[in-house]
Amino acid sequence: MKKQIPEPDKGKSDKDSDSNNEIRKRQLNFGLSYLFVALIGMWLFQQFILTPLMIREIEIPYSELKAKIKAGDVIELTLGTDRIVGTMKNPNDTSAQAKPVNFTTTAIPTGDPALIQDLDQAGVKYSVAEPASPVGNFLIAYVLPLVLIGGIWYFGYRRLSKSGFGMGGMGGVMGVGKSKATEVKPEEIGVTYKDVGGADEAIEELKEIIQFLKQPESFARLGGRIPKGVLLIGPPGTGKTLLAKATAGEAQVPFFETSGSEFVEMFVGVGAARVRDLFEQARKAAPSIIFIDEIDAIGQSRGGAARFGGNDEREQTLNQLLSEIDGFRSEEGKPVIIMAATNRPEILDPALLRAGRFDRQVTVSAPDLTGRLQILRIHSEDIQLAPEFDLERAARITPGFTGADLANVMNEAALLAARRNADGVTMADFEASIERVVAGLEKKSRVMNEQERTTVAYHESGHALVAELVPHGDPVAKVSIVPRGRGALGYTMQMPTEDRYLMTRAELEDRIAVMLGGRAAEQVVFNMISTGASDDIKRASELARRMVTEFGMSDKLGAVRYATQQYQFLASEDTTATASPETLKMIDEEVQRIITQQYERAQNLLQEHHSALEWLTRQLLKTETVDGSVVKQALAE
């Protein structure tokens, strides 16, 4: 059987030819326009800038020159073929000390024989200038500026082409359509899954991608389709970018890294051109991985609020991205996988998330206790830890911390230990770094008057005692009245003993009571309130509103959801859906009821243990910082 030889794709060839012709046409038009503007600029420069700078003498008519020669005002002359330059007495200053002034005039082209006689009769000293070379004048006046303009054009063209800035799409002049993605070679990645901690489930999901890249034929053998896209979803700092790099490092394939914002420019069509160029580069380097960080910059939903302008650049870029994902023309043995990351999945376009585009959606959440222990071990490999440093306890006292938070805390602990010239990082350094990261730097230089200092001491004592007295309060680790950098005049640090994923109504009410314990202490002791509880009130109100609108913990409103936030990782204050005025009023009443009940509860607890409140406050005023054992001791007194 005769083997058929596939014919070349004529449509694609004609398309590439038309594209190249269009690029050459744009380059020619741009070059001619540059030359035209450069010539006009050169003439304006010579006429209005260069000539006035070179000719600084007073310009006088030729007739006035002859009159001044006869009057004896001319001192010296230099006769040229086209201009006459000389010095004369200052017409504005007739004193004996007046300095002569320079002047110039245009010479008569045919010459003036009588001028020499007038000069001799007046006794004026004169000389004849050698005629200038016309070739030299032409070179200096015209050729040299053109060479400079051409040189600027050439070097600017090359430099801007490398930087990717310029004109027109489709990779046209100066490469504006070129993708700004950074290609990382397999040997340069240097990150694998052993460098990632606290994301075991996500890693298991991504290992399948590695098998697709290494052995695509094993999946295609049974008719399986290689997935095209993987979307990493999670809060900031959970390691989405690190996971993508580690996947490329494990698979040992080229890694194209870029950001969604790099596709958007002021020129129309640039984003779509860069998308085309990025996928073309990835196909040439296949098997490879494309990683687009913060894809929500170009992948926002095309519905919803109307935008101004008919041709929205972001929509064009998104449409091109969808088209490229659908039209992956990669060979069976050379797959291309696109990975993307976002912490705003709720705003992504549904067309981007449908099956066949981003086939895998992997959620990367904040690590649990085991994950935090893994992350701390990774980030402490290059840090000298003290022998008594307990990594498990360090992981236990950092609930809710992301991988980036833990790396920052460990680095701060190392810096604190280095400042005191220690041989290793201790748990005290680690706990101090947590305080520094969470609450900010200590401001011991801030001077408070005695009344303010006493009020802060009672306020923090109220938080600590209520936390110990409520049934479900987290243990108090430290209480301090040292001002901190983020506006806190003091703080009470609680260290939970375990990670919690479900909270009961009673536990949430206890948390609100602890938040309001500082305000309650001020009310019990001074029978007055201050502005120090503003942040406490804000957090307590938000939690109470979530109890009513999200968790269905209101007997009056029942198990109905009134909040609109779903699957959001970035904070948003608007959590209430559109509801009737009567319902909104009931929500406000329920939130107020919860806050009022827990505030009164905190006051009652502190009144019952007033002696403990006074004892703990005295200890704080004396030492400024106490640990949790002192709080327990206050209740035992």
TrEMBL record:
<keyword id="KW-0479">Metal-binding</keyword>
<dbReference type="InterPro" id="IPR050928">
    <property type="entry name" value="ATP-dep_Zn_Metalloprotease"/>
</dbReference>
<keyword id="KW-1003">Cell membrane</keyword>
<feature type="region of interest" description="Disordered">
    <location>
        <begin position="1"/>
        <end position="20"/>
    </location>
</feature>
<comment type="similarity">
    <text>In the C-terminal section; belongs to the peptidase M41 family.</text>
</comment>
<dbReference type="InterPro" id="IPR003960">
    <property type="entry name" value="ATPase_AAA_CS"/>
</dbReference>
<keyword id="KW-0812">Transmembrane</keyword>
<dbReference type="InterPro" id="IPR011546">
    <property type="entry name" value="Pept_M41_FtsH_extracell"/>
</dbReference>
<dbReference type="GO" id="GO:0030163">
    <property type="term" value="P:protein catabolic process"/>
</dbReference>
<protein>
    <recommendedName>
        <fullName>ATP-dependent zinc metalloprotease FtsH</fullName>
        <ecNumber>3.4.24.-</ecNumber>
    </recommendedName>
</protein>
<feature type="transmembrane region" description="Helical">
    <location>
        <begin position="32"/>
        <end position="55"/>
    </location>
</feature>
<dbReference type="InterPro" id="IPR003959">
    <property type="entry name" value="ATPase_AAA_core"/>
</dbReference>
<keyword id="KW-0378">Hydrolase</keyword>
<dbReference type="InterPro" id="IPR000642">
    <property type="entry name" value="Peptidase_M41"/>
</dbReference>
<dbReference type="GO" id="GO:0004176">
    <property type="term" value="F:ATP-dependent peptidase activity"/>
</dbReference>
<dbReference type="InterPro" id="IPR027417">
    <property type="entry name" value="P-loop_NTPase"/>
</dbReference>
<keyword id="KW-0482">Metalloprotease</keyword>
<feature type="transmembrane region" description="Helical">
    <location>
        <begin position="139"/>
        <end position="157"/>
    </location>
</feature>
<feature type="binding site">
    <location>
        <position position="463"/>
    </location>
    <ligand>
        <name>Zn(2+)</name>
    </ligand>
</feature>
<feature type="binding site">
    <location>
        <position position="459"/>
    </location>
    <ligand>
        <name>Zn(2+)</name>
    </ligand>
</feature>
<dbReference type="GO" id="GO:0008270">
    <property type="term" value="F:zinc ion binding"/>
</dbReference>
<dbReference type="Pfam" id="PF00004">
    <property type="entry name" value="AAA"/>
</dbReference>
<dbReference type="GO" id="GO:0016887">
    <property type="term" value="F:ATP hydrolysis activity"/>
</dbReference>
<dbReference type="Pfam" id="PF17862">
    <property type="entry name" value="AAA_lid_3"/>
</dbReference>
<dbReference type="InterPro" id="IPR003593">
    <property type="entry name" value="AAA+_ATPase"/>
</dbReference>
<keyword id="KW-0862">Zinc</keyword>
<dbReference type="GO" id="GO:0005886">
    <property type="term" value="C:plasma membrane"/>
</dbReference>
<keyword id="KW-1133">Transmembrane helix</keyword>
<comment type="similarity">
    <text>Belongs to the AAA ATPase family.</text>
</comment>
<dbReference type="InterPro" id="IPR037219">
    <property type="entry name" value="Peptidase_M41-like"/>
</dbReference>
<keyword id="KW-0645">Protease</keyword>
<keyword id="KW-0472">Membrane</keyword>
<feature type="domain" description="AAA+ ATPase">
    <location>
        <begin position="226"/>
        <end position="368"/>
    </location>
</feature>
<comment type="subunit">
    <text>Homohexamer.</text>
</comment>
<dbReference type="GO" id="GO:0006508">
    <property type="term" value="P:proteolysis"/>
</dbReference>
<dbReference type="Pfam" id="PF01434">
    <property type="entry name" value="Peptidase_M41"/>
</dbReference>
<dbReference type="InterPro" id="IPR041569">
    <property type="entry name" value="AAA_lid_3"/>
</dbReference>
<keyword id="KW-0547">Nucleotide-binding</keyword>
<comment type="function">
    <text>Acts as a processive, ATP-dependent zinc metallopeptidase for both cytoplasmic and membrane proteins. Plays a role in the quality control of integral membrane proteins.</text>
</comment>
<dbReference type="Pfam" id="PF06480">
    <property type="entry name" value="FtsH_ext"/>
</dbReference>
<feature type="binding site">
    <location>
        <begin position="234"/>
        <end position="241"/>
    </location>
    <ligand>
        <name>ATP</name>
    </ligand>
</feature>
<dbReference type="GO" id="GO:0005524">
    <property type="term" value="F:ATP binding"/>
</dbReference>
